[in-house]
Design brief:
- The complex is a heterodimer.
- Chain A has a domain of 281 residues.
- Helices cover 59% and strands 0% of the residues of chain A.
- By secondary structure, chain B is of the alpha+beta class.
- Chain B has a domain of 189 residues: Alpha-Beta Plaits (2-Layer Sandwich), CATH 3.30.70.
- In chain B, strands 4, 5, 6, 7, 8, 9 and 11 form a 7-stranded antiparallel beta sheet that branches. In chain B, strands 1-2 form a two-stranded antiparallel ribbon. Chain B has a two-stranded antiparallel ribbon with strand order 3-10.
- The chains are: A mainly alpha, B alpha+beta.
- Chains A and B meet through helix 2 and helix 14 of A and helix 1 and strand 2 of B.
Amino acid sequence: MILMATEDVLSIRDWVRVATDFISENTIGMSRHWEYTDSVSYFLMEFIMCVMVFGGIMTTLLVLLWMERKLLGRFMDRRGARTSLRSLWVGENGVTAGEWWNQLPFGTGVPVGMLNKFLNEVAGNDHELEVVSRVKNRSYHGVWWLLPGFFQNLADGMKFLTKEHMVPEKADRYVFEIAPFLIIATTVMCFTFIPLSPNFYSNDSEMSILFLMAVFSVAPLGVFFAGWSSNNKYTLLGGIRSAAQLTAYEIPLLVTVLSVVVLSGSFNLIEVIEFQADSGVWNIFLLPLGGVLFLVVMVAEVERIPFDMPEAEAELVEGWWTEYGGMRWGLMFASEYLRTYAACLLFAHFFLGGWEAPLEDTIPYIHYVPHILWVFLKAWFMFIFFVWFRAALHRVRTDQILEFGWRWLLPLSLVNLAMATALRLWVYDGINGEWPLLIPILITSISLALFILLSVDEDPEALEAQTRPFSVQTVDVASPGQHRE
Amino acid sequence: MAYHKHATPNFRNLIVRPMWITLKAALRTIPIIGRSKFLQSHGTSKPYHGQETNLLSDAEREMYTAQAHPVIGQTYAPDRETTELFPHFERPVTVMYPYERLEEMEPWLFVPGNYNGRIGVIWETCTACKACVRICPNDCLHMETETRVNVLDMTEEGDEHHGFGVELEVGGIAARRLEGSEEAAANFQLSTAHEAPPEEYEFGEVINLTGDTISVRWNASGTVEDVEAGDVVGAEVDIVSGRIDLGRCMFCGLCMESCPFNSFFMTNEYDGMSGFTREDLWFEADRTRVLPVQHAEAVDIELAKRADQARKKAEKAAAKAAKSEA
């Protein structure tokens, strides 16, 4: 059996539908309200799918945070301490963190204590050296150091949950409280319209991209609310910067998305993915410029380095969220990463063929890999770029960000839109459904050549006139006790 | 404006190069790929940011590559450590200094010769002029000297070694036994005394040696007196203790510069400058000792200088003697 692009070995939505049909037929269907059976079943299925999608996103968000920690250290050649939740159950030197489970009431901590004992036996530190060494990034690190770092995020979450919620005395209280809700709610709502696989999505609407972009663009308002209402000059500066930057980058973002929409001929995200699967070529090979633009603009939209002026730690304490603490801060932090995650997923869907496996028609039996895996793999792969930018590039000044946005990204996105339109009108509409391979190969090779040309670009005059600003001294091996004049 | 080729603000230097460098750094941490020659800076002809270096001499480089020294193939840290579970994942480890030494781990890192390290004194050529003590801004040098008669001069007249101690010379120090000093010394009980032992000698500067008598300006009174040659003996300034408080030292090296006799050094050694108490940092003379063989050059210079002075003096004396004979 050869599965079509829209089919999946994991047809989760169908299974849920079967389950909800069964449930509603055996409950509502038996009652006098039997005519609402289908509606109740559909509502149940949508509800369960929403919860499952949200749960899947929130669970795999931990992967993103874990990647950020691990990758950044490797990119920056600075792998640091890996303390984690493990310290709660392992403790140091067999002390087991004060045996806190004995403080729990009614002996509920006994299984925790037993678990601790077991874990200590399996992967515990039998020597203080391991803990000290792990903290100091030195010497022997015990047997488990790869996995536990993953749960550092859980430990952070527990910390945020237990922290006190404080509102500054002279803050605009209502706006201050509303802002996180606005940011977090709209961020979470984005995932309503992002499918994770052909059978794992919560919504399949005709205008999903439009709605998605609209929802995605509400958060800057919340950011400005937060910056203004905190009654703090740093937050205000951060909020103003954020507002200027995000509104400036909305336009190239929308135009770039529009180019994808024009090329694929649909505002439905699922249809965009199906277009790439059916026409045989991923959009990145047709619109490489669009892919680069989308990535750059998204880095600015989620306020990550190099475009993180709104929360520049060096000058504004923590930017527009300086005054927030506790779980509100934690959730806004999470929503920051959720927006990044959404950006990665959207890149995968717009440009990397969504859930379609690479070389799906060429590699045998690759259809049987669950499609949701490809979506996550592509999104995580795109997140590598976000971390990479963060490790490599420096923070850009606010006016340079805006100048870059208005003077470069906006015209380039218009060029990209024109290219997409030309491709759609004069190439795709003249053929029957599949791109001839010549077109993506030509476009990709020309783009690569341009990139290489740009990369080796140097100013020959400056090179000729260059003087070494540093002195070069030949160093000999020193003999102890000999002083050179 | 002329830019260095790595400082020109273009796409290559602002975006491509940093991303390339970080990518290489990340790839280096991957077990097998990271070992590839392409990512390694060691073993290439331009290991230092694309520039040539000549930190190791050829002989040393051969030596280290021949023994498969642990530093060969390391990625970015002085030493590498692995875990039991993942022996291919490496991580840096601090040099455990007293037991391992940096110059053994990383032979291309050395202590520069002009590094101001532990203080060292060639006590053999020190003349106790105290120039270093006077110039020390932190007052961390302590040198105690004492004017005293050489033991050989304190012997009875007619004794075998009598008179071989210090020669009397103009500008030198003359000592005369105080009246009743022998009696006072005999009565002095060290175990019950609450004061310093009584002085046995008074000291003065020799002004004139030419006649039968010797003109001496006594230090205590300041008066010049002609004394019989047999009444005085020569004396000298001896170092009683030389202590350096390294806890106060800021290693400015002014003491080294002020020394007119090439005897005072800031060595480039960094060991042995720690202790568990403050008192451990009070270096007595024996801990600041530098052997003349290690500073043969400086000792040679100083000895040549002194020999030159002695030769000039002898020539002068000979000329004077010839003149007086004539």
